[in-house]
Design goal:
heterodimer; A: 165 residues; alpha+beta; Alpha-Beta Plaits; three-stranded antiparallel beta sheet; elongated; B: Alpha-Beta Plaits; 26 strands; binds iron/sulfur cluster; binds FE2/S2 (inorganic) cluster
């Protein structure tokens, strides 16, 4: 190495040049969590259950998501033979529906397999809790967080047959 | 009929030769009618099944009269061309000339004739299946997500396999009554019904209770019980099994679990002495349903409703799951090793003939065999409780014990079962009997007062569910139910049949054969076989009645005993 190189000056000047260049560039960091980024469409966040525009639970407890879920995060409890008067003309609805978020890998298979369009991976990504129990979302929480999605078919609503309103 | 008899019966019938998809096969000219047993010309679907070719079908069922209404089994065929003398016309190369019949035919109702050629894979057949399925699904609801049959539904399977993806039908689908209680045990969904009439034919010709029929006309056809008749008998739930779609669903199984989660274990119904072959459908230590398994020597394709619904006790909250030892008013949990060594020590120190053993005819043959060994060793008095119920014309046997035959073979009950109990009670009172071992039996129920039981030096109860005797027991050994162990039952006709293990016993519970074998090993200072297979082979080698059977030879269909009873030393 020459003396000039051994002085380290060119390297130091070069380093400052990079820093100064970045100092005037547009900032790409943000003050998380006060500030949050906008998510791209199709982002796969936490799966939630949705209701239709009439407030009906869309899930019919077919258990296909439970079957497909690779890490077995979903546990659906079927209703059994006793009719639930609260669900009206709907024949079947889960008695309980749990997603264990310590297991979920956000693959989106549950949303893809659901024949009733009842489960969607939404935009939530942060799941910070103090215990494992809190990481298990039950049906009540999933429905509350999932909100409403328009149902185009309304399979259970039929004006010809008042029993099936 | 045993297998050999079946082969003989076949040999007597003349054979005919036909071709299916280019493969030449010989089949018997006639087969017995499934209900009347009269010989009938063999149909194409039966002949193809014998040749290993499966023709898709919905209304045809091998055990029911043919209806031919679904048209799912359409095939194409050709017949040999005959000249004026009814001699086959030959091609230049010497093979018979075949004329293709221009119209498709249903395989379930067309008899096979010599020289016929059946084609099941032609373009015409593929197209016919597509159209038939499109018609069947015209008004079919999109119910698969909530349909209990999904996963084992023939319509679903065929639509996936042979159907077309799109429908030409854009009109509104017809609506029919859903969720209709057709009987106390069955829910009918008329929209899903494809009107195959399997259920009608079953109740009519097998269950001899013609309560079902088709009401209304044309597209409004519905299955219903005839007004004024009730669809209630002991075989109704078989219609749920044979319904090819999810129209008839069992109220007991309704919305309990999707079929694809359940594992099937071949087993034997423990409800009566007929020994119907069944499948246990279970998941994670829970039984969800029992269904019949075909065995023409015993139950054909059917089972009775009382047996089918008699499984709830397996997952009952009264199940015993801990080994308990009571002394001086205290009850403690102990481990198996301690329990076995304490019991064997107590038995060793007591004199011969001072023990009585009550063993249930609901235990497996292997267990009853080990009990007979134990009784011989201790010179014990034994008995077993008869359970007599109501039988019927089809399957249900009045003997509600699944294994009375084994008790009889090993001579473990008095001439009239249960008669020894009063003698045993007297002997306990006089002090001649100091030890009582009850395996699957409830001595209090059999007539031995709790006061008497407290006089015993040793009182061992091995049972599945808690009862009055288990409360009194000095040693309480939790046993395994029929779903939690392997074994054999011998049915009323002397057929030895194997049942399989669906899941592990609850908690600390262990199969009774393990308990008995451990106890015998501790008492005799030699090792006794510990698996049902080894115990069975030991037993079969010892008794001539078993006629050289082995566990492996029994298979899933079972084997018959040599002419039964009194072939053993007592
Ligand atoms: S996103 Fe994937 S891992 Fe998560 S619940 Fe759905 S199927 Fe299971
Ligand atoms: S969320 Fe969808 S896939 Fe999962 S059980 Fe409900 S209806 Fe079936
Ligand atoms: S009967 Fe079969 S095709 Fe029809 S809804 Fe049920 S599973 Fe689906
Ligand atoms: S209810 Fe089932 S078995 Fe009976 S006719 Fe309809 S589809 Fe066939
Ligand atoms: S199976 Fe042949 S017509 Fe139904």
């Amino acid at each position: 190495m020459t003396l000039w190189e051994r002085l380290y000056l060119p390297t130091i000047i070069g380093g400052f040049a990079v820093s100064i260049k970045h100092f005037f560039r547009k900032k790409i960091t943000m003050r998380y969590p006060e500030e949050k980024w906008t998510l791209p469409p199709g982002y796969r966040g936490i799966p939630y259950l949705v209701k239709d525009q009439h407030g009906r639970v869309k899930c019919v407890s077919c258990q296909l998501c439970e079957f497909i879920c690779p890490p077995k995060a979903i546990k659906v409890t079927p209703p059994g033979p006793v009719d639930n008067p609260q669900v009206g003309s709907v024949e079947k609805q889960p008695r309980e529906f749990e997603i264990n978020m310590t297991r979920c890998i956000f693959c989106g298979y549950c949303q893809e397999v659901c024949p009733e369009e009842a489960i969607f991976l939404m935009d939530d990504y942060s799941m910070c809790k103090h215990s494992r129990e809190e990481m298990i979302l039950n049906m009540e929480k999933l429905l509350e967080l999932g909100g409403v999605r328009e149902d185009r078919l309304m399979k259970w609503k039929n004006k010809h047959n008042p029993q099936r309103s | 009929m045993s297998n050999e008899e079946k082969v003989q019966a076949k040999v007597e019938v003349p054979m005919i030769t036909f071709k299916v998809d280019g493969q030449t096969v010989s089949v018997p000219k006639t087969l017995p009618h499934p209900v009347t047993g009269k010989p009938e010309p063999i149909s194409i679907i039966q002949a193809c099944a014998l040749a290993g070719v499966n023709i898709p079908h919905l209304c045809y069922h091998p055990k029911l009269p043919v209806a031919g209404n679904c048209r799912m089994c359409l095939i194409e065929y050709g017949m040999p061309v005959l000249d004026r003398e009814r001699k086959p016309v030959l091609n230049p190369d010497g093979s018979p000339q075949i004329r293709r019949i221009p119209r498709q035919a249903i395989a379930c109702a067309t008899p096979v004739t010599p020289g016929m050629e059946v084609y099941t894979q032609t373009e015409g057949v593929v197209r016919a299946r597509k159209s038939v399925l499109e018609f069947l699904a015209l008004n079919h609801p999109l119910d698969c997500p909530i349909c209990d049959k999904a996963g084992e539904c023939k319509l679903q399977e065929y639509v996936h396999q042979y159907g077309q993806e799109t429908s030409h039908f854009f009109e509104t689908k017809l609506e029919k009554p859903k969720k209709k209680a057709i009987s106390s045990k069955i829910v009918l969904d008329n929209e899903r019904c494809i009107l195959c009439t399997r259920c009608v034919r079953f109740t009519d010709s097998v269950a001899k209770n013609p309560a079902l029929g088709i009401l209304n006309r044309g597209a409004l056809n519905t299955i219903s019980n005839y007004p004024g008749t009730e669809f209630e008998h002991n075989y109704t739930l078989n219609t749920v099994d044979i319904c090819p779609v999810g129209a008839l669903t069992s109220r007991d199984f309704r919305f309990q679990m999707r079929t694809w989660f359940l594992s099937e274990t071949p087993s034997i119904c423990p409800n009566c002495a007929t020994g119907c072959n069944i499948l246990i459908h279970s998941l994670k230590g829970h039984i969800y349903r029992l269904t019949p398994r075909e065995n023409d020597a015993v139950n054909s394709c059917w089972m009775c409703d009382s047996g089918r619904l008699n499984y709830k006790w397996v997952n009952d909250s009264r199940r015993l799951s801990n080994v308990l030892w009571s002394e001086a008013g205290r009850r403690d949990e102990i481990d198996w090793e301690t329990a076995i060594s304490k019991i064997s020590a107590a038995l060793k120190s007591s004199s011969k003939g001072s023990t009585a053993i009550l063993v249930s005819a609901r235990q497996s043959t292997e267990e009853i065999f080990l009990v007979s060994k134990l009784a011989k060793l201790l010179e014990a008095q034994t008995d077993s409780l008869p359970r007599i119920g109501e039988g019927d014309f089809l399957l249900l046997n009045p003997d509600m014990n699944p294994n009375s035959k084994a008790i009889e073979i090993f001579g473990l009950a008095s001439a009239t079962p249960g008669a020894n109990v009063s003698k045993i009670a007297k002997a306990i009172e006089s002090g001649a009997i100091r030890n009582l071992i009850a395996i699957g039996e409830n001595p209090v129920e059999m007539g031995i007062e709790p006061g008497l039981l407290s006089r015993l030096d040793l009182f061992v109860v091995c049972d599945i569910l808690g009862n009055k005797s288990t409360l009194e027991a000095q040693y309480l050994l939790p046993g395994a139910s029929f779903a939690e162990k392997q074994g054999t039952f011998i049915n009323a006709k002397g057929r030895v049949q194997r049942f399989g293990k669906a899941f592990d016993p609850m908690g600390e519970a262990r199969p009774e054969y393990w308990i008995l074998s451990s106890l015998l090993s501790a008492l005799t200072d030699k090792l006794w076989p510990k698996t049902p297979e080894e115990i069975f082979n030991m037993m079969a080698a010892e008794l001539p009645a078993f006629n050289g059977m082995t566990w492996a030879k029994l298979g899933t269909a079972g084997m018959n005993l040599l002419s039964t009873t009194n072939t053993t030393e007592k």
